[in-house]
Amino acid sequence: MIRKNPNGDLPVIHQSAFVDPTAIICGRVVVHENVFIGPYAVIRADEVGPDGGMQPIVIGANSNIQDGVIIHSRAGGSVVIGAGTSIAHRAIVHGPCDVGHRVFIGFNSVLYNCSIGDDCVVRHNAVVDGCRLPRGFHVPSTERIGPGTDLQLIPRVTADVAEFSEDVARTNNQFVTGYKRIQNEL
């Protein structure tokens, strides 16, 4: 469902993107080309800041927002998802947040008020809260990192981890064409 927010902002979705009919895209959202938005995803830009302003939620080209993902922002802050990024099933991205290019965010992970550098991997059930994760870091499953985390204790992305992330992105990019082709069939 594509709908306006209370301010009257309507999402802008590139014609090449696929949005599942069960997904909700609301308000000041920009979806770039060849993006896959899966079933029951909610991307909602509707909360204004103290000044009455609102920044957009932007989904970069060739990214995928999988089943049940929630993307929202408090106080009118922005959320930017870079190109070629995968946000896996039931993850929550709550802004203000900046997620780089070619990032993988695993199942049930939570990002809040943070910045994730390009080529990072945040595995399943992990939490990144209130900090900046530089390029190429790998947050293992169930880890929680925040402002006090010593980043020297966080591993770097290895070739096999990067390959997994790239495979997920490729698979979901192929869904765009396939689902668009059959979207009007019963």
TrEMBL record:
Pfam families: Hexapep. SUPFAM superfamilies: Trimeric LpxA-like enzymes (SSF51161). This is Carbonate dehydratase. It comes from Cupriavidus basilensis.
